Amino acid sequence: MTRYIQRPSPNFDARTRPIDLVVLHYTGMQNAEVALARLTDPKPVAGNYPGPWQSEDVEPDAPLPRVSAHYVVDEAGQIYSLVPEEHRAWHAGVSSWEGDGEVNARAIGIEIVNGGHDFGSPDFPDAQIEGVIGLLRDILRRWPELNAKRVVAHSDIAPARKADPGEKFPWKRLAEAGVSIWPEHVTMQLSSDDPVSEVQQELAFIGYPLKQTGYMDEATKEALVAFQRRFRPSDISGVMDDETRYLLIAVGRMVK
Ligand SMILES: [Zn+2]
Predict the structure, then answer these.
(1) Exposed site from 10, 120, 142, 187, fewest CB < 10 Å?
(2) Which CATH architecture describes the domain 4-176?
(3) From the CA of 107, how far away is ligand 1's center (Å)?
(4) 29 C-alpha to center of ligand 1: Å?
(5) Same fold for the pair 4-176 and 195-255
(6) H-helix segments, the chain
(7) Which of 202, 204, 163 is nearest to 186 (CA)?
(8) 112 CA → ligand 1 middle, Å
(9) Residue ranges of the domains in the chain?
């Protein structure tokens, strides 16, 4: 049994939905201690959390939104428990999955300590990924609505705003450990009469937030980038190429 360090956060309230989703994040901060301080601070002030993630037009003494997660996993794989799973933590922000905008109400949030895109996209150490896998195994075992298909990225639920945990996060390794999914490569005849509508339908079917416009709009491109970050990290251009279309069909078959 994995041991969790208790680091209680006051930043939570009551759930309004049953738990049926897990959202993975990176912290995007310098180190674990700064992230833990921010995620447990009931009165966060801008100047106390300096860094490139903070926009320059924020006054140094301006209050920041209160945030939290249920767990933090540091680079050594040590797990911190901040908010009991039964409560709603505040990690998803403006987001949506499967047409439902109340993600925090139904999700368990895990923050993985990593500087992310603002700090040179460092690798995720093996020990850290082992820690994430162990934590997910523990969580998935305890909640009946949860399984490997129910683990998503922050970038999946907020493609226009978020890029975490990022294309360097090893989703395939998580899938091999049984705590995420990874598509088999499928090839088939792709129809060509209305590929954009087909792609929009596949993305929405999987859960991505976008409207069925029938043309390649910004939201569709952002959802494609988010999809590629997870399932085709070697090329996250957002271009609707054949390989992406195959992968969309493969993932769609896996998740429902
Ligand atoms: Zn996040």
Answers:
(1) 120
(2) 3-Layer(aba) Sandwich (3.40)
(3) 13
(4) 11
(5) no
(6) 32-40, 103-106, 126-142, 154-157, 171-176, 195-206, 218-231, 242-255
(7) 202
(8) 9
(9) 4-176, 195-255
Span 70-104, pLDDT tens digits? 999 999 999 999 999 999 999 999 999 999 999 99
CA 109 to chain CA mean position, Å: 8
Tokens 């590929």 correspond to what residue?
A: 195
Can you name the residues that pair with 249 across neighbouring β-strands? none
Tell me the catalytic residues: 111
∠ Cα 15 208 184 (to 5°) = 115
Q: Is the dihedral of CA 60, 69, 219, 244 positive or negative?
A: positive
Residues lining ion ligand 1 (Cβ < 5 A) are 25, 154, 164
- For residue 131 the two structure tokens come to 């820690």
pTM beyond 0.90: the answer is yes
Instruction: Pull the structure tokens for residue 104.
Output: 């925090």
- CATH (one of 1.20.120.50, 3.40.30.10, 3.40.50.80, 1.10.101.10) for 195-255: 1.10.101.10
Distance from the alpha carbon of residue 183 to the mean position of ligand 1, in angstroms: 23
Residue 233 phi/psi, 5° resolution? -65, -10
The encoded tokens of residue 23 equal: 């959202």
